Amino acid sequence: MSRQTRADGDQATPAAQIGARVRTYRTNQGLTMRELARRAEVSQPYVSQLEHGDLLPSIPSLYRLAAALGITASKLLPDLSSVPDSSLSMPTGSAGTTQRVLAGGSGRGLHVHEITIAPKTAEDGWFNHSGEEVAVAMEGRPSWENTHGVRHALPAGGALVIDTSTPHRWRNDGDLLARIILICADSLSAESEFHANPEETLTLH
Predict the structure, then answer these.
(1) What phi, psi does 167 have (nearest 5°)?
(2) What pTM did the predictor assign?
(3) Predicted confidence (pLDDT) per residue in 72-83, tens digit
């Protein structure tokens, strides 16, 4: 089968696997590309390129597409065992930042991401989503902030339970590279949607 039509795409590239999954869920629900694009706040050409395996979505775009399809983001992720080093670099749209999916992959309820942020750099956009998320600062002193004006600077080894329902982003005001590990748990149910206390922090020893 072609990369556009096979539902699992296990032998295809990561982009083709994600595109095949998006197309399968979209067509199973009887949605047009235009309608999915409207719901996910992306363009119709973007959906077309995605379904053809011509691009990888950013993590925020992946979550928006999943929400528009009524599924968890992990259902769109590729089989990481088919990816070199079993990790997947995702585009960020923010200069000086990188993001990789390190563990989890297709159909897993729990997935792990790594974010790096260059000195004096911040993520360009604000991002909110369903589910639960814990961040651990591995290097540098990254800061998490949300649109309510809450900010936390994490020392190396520090951890933060994140309120994912509020638009938020990461920044690095320091002089050294910051590296963060995110442990993410998906949730579709509004009853189980996580609303963490942004003040809840701890330090690992």
Answers:
(1) -55, 130
(2) 0.79
(3) 888 998 888 777
